[in-house]
Amino acid sequence: MNFNNNSYQEIDLDYCRANTSKRFANYLIDLVVFYIIMFCIGILIGIFNPSLVEGLDGIGGRLISLLFYGIIMFFTEAMSNGKSIGKLITGTKAVNLDGSDITFQKAFTRNLVRAIPFNVFSALGNPCAPWHDTWSDTLVIEEKKVALQKQQVDLFGEVRNQTL
Questions:
Q1: Where are the beta strands (DSSP E) in the chain?
Q2: Which one, 24, 30, 104, 164, has least CB within 10 Å?
Q3: Highest mean pLDDT: which range of 4-8, 17-21, 50-54
Q4: What is the DSSP-derived secondary structure letter of residue 3?
Q5: What is the mean pLDDT of residues 26-55?
Q6: Across the chain, which distance is largest between two alpha carbons, in Å?
Q7: CA–CA separation, 78 vs 15, rounded Å?
Q8: Which residue(s) pair with 93 in the sheet?
Q9: What whole-number distance in Å separates Cα of residue 21 and Cα of residue 7?
């Protein structure tokens, strides 16, 4: 057997990519968390300055909520190393295309694009590649698959070293 093949030395991130159903679950969980946060903020604003809430209806309110969604997701992913609440629950993580952790700037770009209307529809398809992934050069991976591939690389690396 020839173990000099480099295919055992690399982790296949396309294989580890989170599928559309996990991405949809991430979105739904994050959306519920976002609405809980916005409800709490709305109550606080309503208590302290009720006139501010009255003007937030229609398209203006929707655009502001899209912007707030991007900002809240940015802070969540930037502080938790590429994970949102939904990603934490489903065992997924946002990473760069080379598999490294996303930077603060990538998290900002990624979540700024989330504020674009109809971004959620760009996630339809297989493989799931929404605009906020494509335009920021990131992808969402399943952490269990990455761990299994790392174990495979380590195993074949040990076998390769023993046979040389």
A1: 92-96, 138-142
A2: 164
A3: 17-21
A4: -
A5: 87
A6: 76
A7: 25
A8: 141
A9: 28
Identify the sign of the CA torsion 132, 136, 142, 145. Answer: positive
C-alpha–C-alpha distance, residues 32 and 84, integer Å: 12
Q: Between 12 and 47, where is the model more confident?
A: 47
In one-letter notation, the amino acid at residue 92 is T
Per-residue pLDDT at 8 exceeds 70? no
Nearest Cα to 67, choosing from 136, 115, 138? 115
Contact, 137 vs 106, CB < 8 A? Answer: yes
> Residues, the chain, total?
164
Whether residue 138 contacts residue 96, with contact meaning beta carbons closer than 8 Å, is answered with: yes
- Per the CB < 8 A criterion, the answer to whether 145 and 11 are in contact is no
Residue 24, Ramachandran bin (φ over 0: left; ψ between -120 and 50: alpha; else beta): alpha
- Percent helix, strand and coil across the chain, each to the nearest 5: 65, 5, 25
For residue 99 the two structure tokens come to 């598999």
